[in-house]
Amino acid sequence: MCYVVHLSTTSTEDLGRLSSRLVQYKTPSPQDQAITGLLLYPNKWYIGTLSGCSCTLRHVMAHGLGFGKPEDWFPEDEESIQATLALIRTVRRLRQEGHATDCIDVWAGSTGEGILRLEVDLATLADEEFRLFENHHFLFD
């Protein structure tokens, strides 16, 4: 199984131009409608990574572990750390420019059932602390 992350925003900016080796912003496929239909804003993007899916981002399986910087006791690939930093910096910039933004992290093939909403206060969260939680809908403030 693979993680898939979708992002939506009120910005009409072509995020595809921000694509890099670590993070690619792509138009979602029609098969992703079950998840993209849950996003709140009109401009939707699939977040791809080195792995081809969204797996090369920082993920934890439960929000109970919370946000946190990479720790020596929980090894993470440098590519995952850098890809996640690129994603959250894009989200932060969009919010600073006044655009609403959200994203959903699920397993490929998810129907969207049981997704939990999570409000994320970017004013209290360092970029290095951001990571995704499986089966969560992130509402960025």
Task: Please give a structural write-up.
This protein is of the alpha/beta class. It has helices at 33-36, 78-96, and strands at residues 3-9, 23-26, 43-49, 59-60, 101-107, 116-120, 132-133, 136-140. It has a six-stranded mixed beta sheet, covered by helices on one side. A two-stranded parallel ribbon has the order 4-7. It is globular, with a radius of gyration of 14 Å. The N and C termini lie far apart (30 Å).
In brief, what are we looking at here?
This protein is of the alpha/beta class and 141 residues long. Helix content is 16%, strand content 28%.
**Quick one: biggest sheet?**
6 strands, mixed
Could you tell me the number of beta strands?
8
Assign an overall shape. Answer: globular
The stretches of 5 or more residues where confidence is low (pLDDT under 50) are: none
Radius of gyration (CA) equals 14 Å
Residue-averaged pLDDT? 94
Structural class: alpha/beta
Proportion of residues in extended strands: 25-35%
| Helix segment tally | 2
Strand order of the largest sheet: 2-3-1-5-8-6
The helix content, as a percent range, equals 10-25%
- How far apart lie the N and C ends? 30 Å
